[in-house]
Design goal:
By secondary structure, the protein is an alpha+beta fold. It has a domain of 148 residues. It has seven helices and 18 strands. The strands form five sheets. Strands 4, 5, 12, 13, 14 and 15 form a six-stranded antiparallel β-sheet that branches. Helix 2 packs antiparallel against helix 4, helix 4 packs antiparallel against helix 5 and helix 5 packs antiparallel against helix 7.
């Protein structure tokens, strides 16, 4: 009995010091100070990197890395948003376990802190699970997928069967590594010769100083490619280019230049099957399809200032036997199957509607957290107010 008690005491002593550090107020102050630095440097970096790159590098990461220009190594210089948020969450939970005891007088504070904890969890889940994309529809066009405006993919399409296409999509993060990609359903391998995150494409007849092309097949033979800095503007997107060599069991079939600026797929044959290669914006397929029936753009009288724009679409879902018309306007989105479609913009002389598509499984958590924080504040202030009134009356 004495031996078990001594062992438990030693185990508690072993965890006591780390627990004190995790629950200390000093850790809270340090994390808040680092968060202020992270926001400051992240705001400055938007000038050169743009808001989307800064969001990924500074706030949706464990560490912020820095490397000298032209160097192939990097070192962490600041904790990222995910790391700071996780440490703050652990610190808040540990502080509650170490100091707070439930009582009626502290009910408001407990609700308030529980709301803050839920808010941190909701933000973490939103960053990890939320998915944003765009759906561009011309009048009369039908699509069952949306596209990521700043992510690309390499699509290998087997068009041998006239009834359907078999598609293998390779995300952009695999293209950035100059390596070999092998997929079991494909009778060949893909070798990424060179990847350009942003590029400029011109016809070789317009650039007499262009060097010889790395492409041996397709339209890339007549195109000169040069790498340019990545864009930081919200209304622009990078033109991704990649040189891909296709190699089968019989040997190399050639090298193709693929880019999201080249919309037409480039075809070749291998093992008696016909394939197409294309670099396109990353697609997110849905279980339903939307058809744009009509787009309306209202302006204030005598000006070009948009007053309201809306899209009338037809929603078709064969699994759920849905076939109905829906109006999506600026303040009235469509919510269906966990997706929310917002009217985001328009293009092509009001013939193209742009819908922002958001899927966030943790969407309800911030609302519940804010409600708990408000309830905790009201409860705590009410208890103090009633206590003050009772003392004054006495």
């Amino acid at each position: 009995m004495f031996t078990n008690t001594l062992a438990q005491s030693r185990a508690w002593d072993f965890f006591k010091q780390p627990f004190r550090v995790l629950s200390s107020l000093r850790l809270t102050v340090v994390c808040l100070g680092l968060a202020m630095l992270l926001i400051f440097f992240g705001t400055l970096a938007q000038v050169h990197l743009g808001i989307h790159a800064v969001q990924a590098r500074y706030f949706q990461s464990l560490f912020v890395f820095w490397s000298p220009p032209g160097a192939g190594w990097k070192i962490p210089v600041l904790p990222g948003g995910y790391l700071l948020g996780t440490v703050l969450l652990i610190n808040l939970i540990a502080a509650h376990a170490a100091r707070f005891q439930f009582s009626r007088k502290k009910a408001g504070i407990i609700l308030l802190h529980f709301g803050v904890i839920l808010l941190l969890i909701g933000q973490l889940l939103t960053g990890l699970m939320a998915q944003e994309s765009q759906l561009r529809l011309d009048e009369g066009e039908t699509r069952a997928y949306s596209e990521a405006p700043r992510e690309t993919e390499l699509a290998v399409i087997d068009v041998t069967n006239p009834d359907y296409d078999q598609v293998v999509a390779i995300p952009e993060r695999f293209l950035t590594r100059a390596s070999t990609i092998q997929q079991p359903t494909l009778p060949f391998t893909l070798k990424i010769r060179r990847f350009l995150p942003n590029s400029q494409l011109v016809m070789r007849g317009q650039d007499s100083s262009a060097s010889s092309s790395e492409a041996t097949n397709g339209v890339g033979v007549n195109i000169a490619v040069s790498e340019i800095p990545r864009t930081v503007k919200d209304d622009e997107r990078d033109l991704v280019s990649v040189f891909v060599e296709v190699e089968s069991m019989e040997g190399a079939l050639g090298t193709w230049l693929l880019a999201n600026a080249i919309s037409d797929p480039q075809s070749f044959t291998c093992s008696g099957r016909t394939f197409e290669l294309v670099v396109r914006q990353r697609r997110f397929y849905k279980q339903f399809a939307l058809t744009l029936l009509n787009f309306t753009h209202d302006r204030y009288a005598g000006t070009d200032i948009p007053k309201n724009f809306s899209s009338r679409v037809r929603l078709v879902d064969l699994e759920r036997n849905e076939n109905r018309d829906v109006l999506i306007s600026m303040n009235d989105p469509l919510r269906y199957r966990g997706y929310t479609f917002y009217q985001s913009g328009f293009d092509n002389d009001d013939k193209t509607s742009i819908l922002q598509v958001v899927k966030n499984p943790a969407m309800i958590i911030p609302y519940v957290a804010c409600a708990l924080v408000a309830l905790g504040l009201v409860t705590q202030f009410s208890m103090h107010l009633f206590g003050f009134i009772r003392k004054r009356n006495a």
